[in-house]
Amino acid sequence: MQFELTEEHLMIRQAARDFAQNVLKPGVIERDEHQKFPAEEIKQLGELGFLGMMVSPQYGGSGMDAISYAIVMEELSKVDASASVVVSVNNSLVCYGLEKYGNEEQKQKYLMPLAKGEKIGAFCLSEPEAGSDATSQHTTAIDMGDYYLVNGTKNWITNGNTASTYIVMAQTDATKKHRGINALIIEKGMDGFTVGPKENKLGIRGSDTHSLMFTDVKVPKANRIGEDGFGFKFAMATLEGGRIGIASQALGIAAGAYELSVQYAKERKAFGKTLADLQAIQFKLADMATEIEAARLLCYRAAWLKDQGLPYAQAASMAKLFASETAMRTTIEAVQIHGGYGFVKEYHVERLMRDAKITQIYEGTSEIQRIVISREVLK
Ligand code: CAA
């Protein structure tokens, strides 16, 4: 068993760390305040090869492993989870799905520009009445011969307005339930496709979350991913990898809040000592460090299983469940350690606390992760 990162992993970590500190950090408070999408920063992440990290170079990607992806997600998320969610969705839910299940034409046309970071993708599963209950799709894709006629609404879509390429799950044959769902590639600009207003969110406020409306959108049959009725399995399989990304995002949020807390505890004086001299603070930091290390090991293990081609659904859900709960607990404690300073924006921890919450909700709530885990346990 090998617990050390390779030289290559360490180099990737340093590159992501430098980028987070030098490029993401300076504007992160303002972007959060004004709900501003990190457009220039995402462009630069694309140039670094971080938007198609695991895609083969043949299709414009960087050909890295899932452990590298987890490392990059952690480092970026220590500073800016609004930027890292773009990295996660583009890599896991869009590029991975297209490379694994798309045909050659789809890879050339859609995957290439997404992997190179020239375009951004979105994954469209959630609906007003289909969040956790993802089989209950109301968006329809009626088979019209050589095209599908798509009607319906998608909710809370990350990269909703910024994306150019959308993978949309829609029901073609309701009598077949989830086996009647298709995954369709829809391009921005197709007639009848409109983007709703940006959501005003508690956290990850810089990310671009919108509802999407489809009214008689004609989608060529060539844009269907996989066989007829493969859409739900496509969504579930891509979400497995997505959960490694969000687990690593949660890990990064926790680690970012922890590092700020250690620094603050060493500097801040109270009762004639530094906070770090007080056992009440030492114990909090010890708990944070322990949980973060456990979360990191779960993230790396899930990524490693994926890299080995072994089943990783349960491991990814365990990582996401534990890391997101760790992010919530750690950031709350970080605000507590910072006291009054923790409650104002300049010290970053209040934002990390708000950002942590979404990691318990998107790509499956903590309850959904428990369903996935317990099904495996009880098999
Ligand atoms: N890979 C492939 N197929 C899978 C699968 C997987 N990981 N998991 C399930 N399936 C298949 C099953 O084999 C089954 O197929 P058959 O009937 O043909 O055998 C089919 O899918 C249905 O499976 P279940 O019976 O397990 O379905 P269920 O209704 O009980 O639901 C669930 C399972 C785990 C609750 C699922 O609905 C789920 O994960 N819900 C949460 C959805 C979610 O994560 N949404 C996130 C939105 S995306 C997002 O947040 C992105 C963002 O913006 C950041």
TrEMBL record:
Residues 6-118 form the Acyl-CoA dehydrogenase/oxidase N-terminal domain. Coiled coil: none annotated. CDD domains: SCAD_SBCAD. Residues 122-217 form the Acyl-CoA oxidase/dehydrogenase middle domain. Residues 231-377 form the Acyl-CoA dehydrogenase/oxidase C-terminal domain. Keywords: FAD, Flavoprotein, Oxidoreductase. InterPro entries: Acyl-CoA_DH_CS, Acyl-CoA_Oxase/DH_mid-dom, Acyl-CoA_Oxase/DH_mid-dom_sf, AcylCo_DH-like_C, AcylCo_DH/oxidase_C, AcylCoA_DH/ox_N, AcylCoA_DH/ox_N_sf, AcylCoA_DH/oxidase_NM_dom_sf. Its cofactor is FAD. Belongs to the acyl-CoA dehydrogenase family. This is Acyl-CoA dehydrogenase. It comes from Mucilaginibacter rigui. The lineage of its organism: Bacteria, Pseudomonadati, Bacteroidota, Sphingobacteriia, Sphingobacteriales.
